[in-house]
Specification:
mainly alpha, about 60% helix, binds zinc ion
C-alpha cells in the first residue's frame, strides 16, 4: 500500500504553504502560534525516542521555513517569544558534532514550500515514507534530514533572523544619520530633500522619513515656517507605508500625532491640502512648491488657497492627524500582535 499522510497533516501542509508563499488563507498569526506551541510540547517528550527524534527534525524544519513570515509579516511579541523558545529548545537537542554525513549530503537551498512539505512529513513514519517516495530519496538522503549538524544550522539561522527582526520591529530605530541629509548647514530643515527621499519609493524611505519627522516634531527642533512641511512629510510617510510600519516606528508616529488638538473649528470653506491630496505626485508638487517656489513653480494648490494662514489652520492639522491615526489603527489590524506590543 502506498504510504500517505494523515488528513490533519495534509491540511497543515496546505495552511503553511499558503503562509510561506505569502498568500495565506488560514489566519497566519494563530496558525503559526499553534505550530510553535506544538513544537514546544514536542520538546517535553523524550528526545531520544523515535517519536522525539522525528519531531525534532520536523519542527526544526517547519520553524525555519516559517520564521521569515514571523520576522516580517506579523508584529507580535508573544509569537516571537514562542518561536525563540521552541527553537532554542530544539537547538539544544541538536548535536552539531554528531554529523557523520558524507560531504554535501545535507539538504541545501531548500525553498520554503519544499521545507514545509519536508517538515510536516518528517513528523511521522508514514509521512517520511510518502515523502521519500514522492521525491525519490534513498535511505541516506532521508537520514540526512535527521543530522544534528544540519538541524543545528537551521535552528541557528532561524534564531539569528528572529533576533535581528525583533530589534527592527520592536526596538529603537536610529534615524540620526538622516540629520546629515535633511538639515542644511544653517540648521534649517530641508523639506525638499525630505520630499525627494519620500519620492524614491524604491529606497523604502517612508518609515525613516516619517520617524525622523515625528522625532523632530516631538523635540520641537523646528522653526514655525517648517512646521507644516515637517508635518506633511510625517503624514505622507505614514500614508505611503502601505504595508504598515512596525511598533518601533509607530510608537513615535502616534506620539507626534497625539500632540494635535482634534477638537477645533474654523471659518474657512476649504484648506489647501484638499486640492493637493488626489495623488502622491500632486502632494509632492504642493509641498516642494511651498518651500521652493522658484525651483518648483508648479503646484496643484490654487493661488486663492495658498495663504500661509490656511496652510497653518489647526483644522487642517486635525484632519490630517485623524487620517494618519486611522492608518496606524489599520496597521495594527493588518499586522496583529497585542495592544501592548504597539506601546512602549
Ligand atoms: Zn550531517
Ligand atoms: Zn481652517
Amino acid at each position: 500500500m502506498t504510504p500517505t499522510l494523515s488528513a490533519d497533516h495534509r491540511e497543515l501542509i496546505a495552511d503553511l504553504s499558503g503562509i510561506v508563499s505569502d498568500y495565506p488563507y488560514a489566519d497566519p498569526e494563530s496558525t503559526l502560534a499553534v505550530l510553535a506551541g506544538d513544537a514546544g510540547e514536542a520538546l517535553g517528550r523524550d528526545a531520544t525516542s523515535p517519536e522525539g527524534s522525528r519531531e525534532r527534525t520536523g519542527y526544526t524544519i517547519l520553524l525555519h521555513a516559517t520564521c521569515w513570515y514571523v520576522s516580517s509579516r506579523i508584529f507580535s511579541k508573544s509569537l516571537f517569544a514562542s518561536y525563540v523558545q521552541a527553537l532554542e529548545g530544539l537547538r539544544a537537542q541538536s548535536d552539531r558534532t554528531a554529523c557523520a554525513c558524507p560531504a554535501g549530503a545535507h539538504p541545501a537551498d531548500l525553498d520554503s514550500e519544499y521545507e514545509v512539505e519536508a517538515g510536516v512529513s518528517m513528523l511521522t513514519e508514514a509521512g517520511r515514507a510518502a515523502f521519500a517516495e514522492d521525491y525519490g530519496l534513498d535511505e541516506d538522503e532521508l537520514a540526512a534530514f535527521d543530522c544534528g549538524a544540519f538541524l543545528a544550522d537551521l535552528a541557528d539561522e532561524a534564531l539569528g533572523r528572529l533576533r535581528e527582526a525583533h530589534q527592527e520591529l520592536f526596538g529603537g530605530i536610529d534615524v540620526s544619520p538622516l540629520d546629515g541629509k535633511f538639515l542644511r548647514d544653517d540648521d534649517h530643515i530641508d523639506i525638499v530633500a525630505m520630499q525627494e527621499a519620500l519620492s524614491r519609493s524604491w529606497e523604502d524611505n517612508t518609515g525613516p522619513v516619517a520617524l525622523w519627522s515625528a522625532r523632530r516634531w516631538l523635540t520641537g527642533q523646528l522653526r514655525d515656517e517648517e512646521r507644516i512641511g515637517v508635518f506633511l512629510c510625517l503624514w505622507m510617510g505614514i500614508d505611503q507605508s502601505y504595508g504598515g510600519l512596525p511598533p518601533s516606528y509607530a510608537r513615535d508616529l502616534a506620539a507626534a500625532l497625539d500632540t494635535i488638538d482634534l477638537d477645533v473649528t474654523c471659518e474657512h470653506p476649504q484648506h489647501p491640502w484638499s486640492t493637493a491630496d488626489s495623488t502622491v505626485r500632486s502632494r509632492h508638487r504642493a509641498v516642494v512648491h511651498l518651500y521652493a517656489p522658484d525651483d518648483h513653480p508648479d503646484t496643484p494648490v490654487p493661488a486663492e488657497l495658498s495663504a500661509r494662514e490656511l496652510w497653518e489652520c489647526p483644522v487642517q492639522y486635525a484632519q490630517l492627524a485623524r487620517e494618519a491615526l486611522k492608518d496606524l489603527e489599520g496597521w495594527r489590524t493588518m499586522r496583529g500582535g497585542d495592544d501592548e506590543d504597539w506601546e512602549d
